[in-house]
Amino acid sequence: MKKAILSILFIGLVGSIFTACSGDDDAPIVITETPTDGGNGDDGGDENFVLSGQITEDRTLTSDQIWTLDGRVTVTNGACLTIEAGTIIKALGGQEANASVLIVARGASIKALGTAAQPIIMTSTADGIQPGETVGTLTENDRGLWGGLIVLGNAPSSLDGDVTEQQIEGIPANDPNGLYGGNDAADNSGTITYVSIRHGGTDIGEGNEINGLTLGGVGTGTTIDHVEVVANVDDGVEFFGGTVNASNLVVWAQGDDGIDIDQAYSGTVSNSVVIAGNVSDHALEIDGPEGSANGGFTLDGITLIGDQDTSRGEYADYRDGAQGATNNVFATNFQADKDVELDNNGVAQNFLDGALTFSNWTVEGISPANSIFDEKTGDGESDIILNPTFTERAAMWTTSGTSGGADTTVFGWTFASASGSL
Question: What is the mean pLDDT of residues 19-40?
Answer without folding.
Answer: 43
